[in-house]
Structures are given as C-alpha cells and as structure tokens.
Specification:
By secondary structure, this protein is an alpha+beta fold. The protein is built from 4 helices and 12 strands; from the N terminus they run βαβαβαββαβββββββ. It has one domain: Glutaredoxin, CATH 3.40.30.10. A 4-stranded antiparallel beta sheet has the order 1-10-7-6, with no helix packed on it.
C-alpha cells in the first residue's frame, strides 16, 4: 500500500478474506454489489441525448451506480461542453487500450470496467447490467460520512485482488441549453455528471483497507475499487 496526498490510511488489518458459501450469494442484496455504468458522452454529440436519458433512468435504481464522463473531443464542432475534461477522454482511451478496442465513440457505456455497448441501446445495457449483477462479489466497499470527510473501507470477499481506490464527486443533475453545434437549440437534462475524479490510494488486496478523504458535507460521492490499468471494477459504493 502506498500513501497519496490528502488521504489518511489506517494500517492493514490482519483479518483474512472472508469465504462465501455457495448458498449465500443467491441471497445477497444487490445494493451490496452495485453495478457501475459509465457513460462517455458530450453535449456536442447529436446521438447522445437518448443515452443521457437512459443514464438518468438507471439512476433511479439502487443496484446501479451511473456515472457520466463528458469528453472533450467534440468541442471543435462549435459547442464547448463545460462538463468535459481531457482526463475523462484519457479514461475512455485507457479502457480502449485495456480492452483491445479499435476506437472510442459517444455515446459509449462501459459496465463494471469490462464490456462496452452503445449507450443508446437500452436492451443491451439492461442485459449487461443483469449479467454483472448476477455475478458473485469479489470485494466490498463501504463508506461512512463524518462531517466533511468520508471514511472508506474495502475488503475481499472471495479473493484477494489488488485495486486502486478511485474517489469521484458528481453533480446529481443540471439542465443545459445548447446554442451551437450538432445539438443547437436543444435543452438537455444531464445527470450524474462527474466533476472530480482522483485515484487516492492503491490497496494490495490483502487484509482490510481503511482510509478517509475530504468531501464537502452532503456532496454526493462514489468510491470505486478498480483493478489497475483500467481493469475490472471489483467493488463500488456511493453516498448520495
């Protein structure tokens, strides 16, 4: 384990990973193993509004953590997406390299850091979410808010796998009137808009990880435990 700025880490505890009996996984609460749905979108993309709407619908479920990463590579066509960041474009490209995909596009949805699907295809998205929800959890992340800090705890469930601790802060929703570009004249309601994303620590996958990060009180936050180099998302949790 290594320390990162702004994060206080407790020592790794000696508890071993907990084995789960075969009958227990069938009874698991899906909210304990939420599926992470990342939408790569842009205000300058004419085919994105249906995917943005789909993400808002997914946000009504407790078993799904939706995240909208606005990319910047459509800004050149006349409308600058003020939610976009080159770091989010870099994340999308990182997934493409890790998955061996030949291209990136919008709207692209990536489920649990593994499979991708066109974000405006609701049936295919639903099938992938169901598939990942049925898979047994390999780790668990839990969060506790204490004023302007969030305590993070991660532990293995079925195996010990190293993972990075990602902390994301997002805006729940915002309406935007687009004046230029492909969506000129449209007013679009965006949700789960990632505004800040940082990798704050790396856990070696043994024992229990504990740490805390500063987060303004009552601000939504998501924590991902993700395999290094844009690997699978092993576990996730959020505070809304």
């Amino acid at each position: 384990m290594r320390n990162f700025p702004g994060v206080r880490l407790a020592g790794v505890m000696l508890a071993a990973c907990v084995a789960v009996g075969a009958g227990m996984s069938a009874q698991a609460d899906p909210t304990d193993n939420p599926v992470v749905v990342e939408l790569f979108t842009s205000q300058g993309c004419s085919s994105c509004p249906p995917a943005d709407e789909l993400l808002a619908t997914l946000g009504e479920r407790d078993d799904v953590i939706p995240l909208a990463f606005h990319v910047d590579y459509w800004d050149y066509i006349g409308w600058k997406d003020h939610f976009a960041s080159p770091r989010f474009t870099k994340r999308q490209k990182g997934y493409a390299r890790a998955g061996g995909w030949k291209m990136i596009y919008t709207p692209q949805i990536i489920v649990n850091g593994m499979e991708d699907v066109v974000g405006s295809h609701p049936d295919e998205v639903a099938a992938l979410v169901q598939q990942h929800e049925a898979a047994p959890a390999v780790a668990k992340v839990s969060l506790v808010r204490q004023g302007d800090r969030v305590q993070i705890r991660a532990e293995g469930v079925r195996m010990s796998t190293p993972g990075d601790i990602h902390v994301l802060r997002y805006a729940p929703s915002q309406e935007v009137t687009i004046k230029r570009g492909e969506n000129a004249g449209k007013t679009v309601w965006y949700t789960h808009i990632v505004r800040e994303w940082d990798v704050v620590a790396r856990w070696d996958g043994t024992g229990v990880f504990e740490g805390e990060v500063p987060v303004p009180a009552n601000e939504p936050v998501v924590v991902l435990l993700q395999a290094p180099k844009y690997g699978p998302i092993l576990a996730a949790a959020r505070l809304r």
